[in-house]
Backbone:
């Protein structure tokens, strides 16, 4: 499950809410060259790496996708996603719009969700509330202009008004997606095998 939004759109809090709501979901930790913010934990929020380390990961093909956002590099280690899938859980990736499209191209089965705040005023309040300096708010709003242009490429759009509702809506999308016939053909096949082998009723 890939969640994107303009900066301040709610990716981080919606992800936390999803992980708390439902044990099916697990966060696939990504790596970044940006400095750690107060309270962030290496290996939990991000793998904080140097530009050299990031370059090496990229060259060695260890990143599923990567992007430069607001002057820093970000990338999804293949290992992070595989580790979650191997546990039979749903990897939740909160990445920028370019990364979301790269993942969808590689894995058409990935489900992409775009979050939008109810309006611009709310977005600005949330960015300020998160402690972003006015110049950072301006950069993020400018980036948002190009990000929303590609919103139509996402599978789903969720308006992030009340947080609890947003989290439940994203979980509901996962519920529906897991019921798609194409994701459950093994069950149809198993039933077909039972039918073939039946001896009377
Ligand atoms: P992103 O990860 O997309 O940049 P965040 O998850 O950091 O966005 O959200 C930006 C700020 O807005 C945070 O301070 C967060 O707590 C707040 N926020 C996000 N969604 C909501 C919501 N539905 N209601 C109230 N505050 C929210
Ligand atoms: P922040 O620095 O605010 O944590 O993140 C900045 C942007 O980078 C956000 O849109 C975030 O979702 C995105 N991001 C985080 N990790 C990755 C990643 O691995 N790949 C891509 N493409 N974007 C990422």
Residues:
């Amino acid at each position: 499950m890939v969640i994107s939004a303009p900066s301040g759109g709610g990716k981080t809090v919606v992800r936390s809410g999803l992980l708390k709501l439902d044990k099916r979901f697990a966060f696939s930790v990504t790596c970044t060259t940006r400095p750690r913010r107060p309270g962030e934990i290496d290996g939990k929020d991000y793998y904080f790496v140097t530009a050299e380390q990031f370059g090496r990961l990229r060259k060695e093909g260890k990143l599923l996708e990567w992007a430069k956002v607001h002057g820093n590099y970000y990338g999804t280690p293949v290992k992070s996603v595989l580790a979650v899938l191997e546990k039979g859980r749903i990897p939740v990736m909160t990445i920028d719009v370019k990364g979301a499209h790269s993942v969808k191209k590689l894995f058409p089965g990935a489900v992409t969700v775009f979050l939008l705040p109810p309006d611009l005023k709310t977005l600005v309040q949330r960015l300020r509330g998160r402690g972003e300096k006015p110049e950072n708010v301006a950069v993020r709003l400018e980036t948002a202009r190009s990000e929303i242009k590609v919103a139509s490429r996402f599978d789903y759009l969720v308006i992030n008004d009340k947080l609890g509702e947003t989290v439940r809506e994203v979980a509901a999308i996962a519920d529906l997606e897991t019921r798609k016939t194409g994701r459950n053909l093994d069950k149809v096949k198993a039933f077909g095998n039972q039918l073939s082998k039946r001896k009377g009723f």
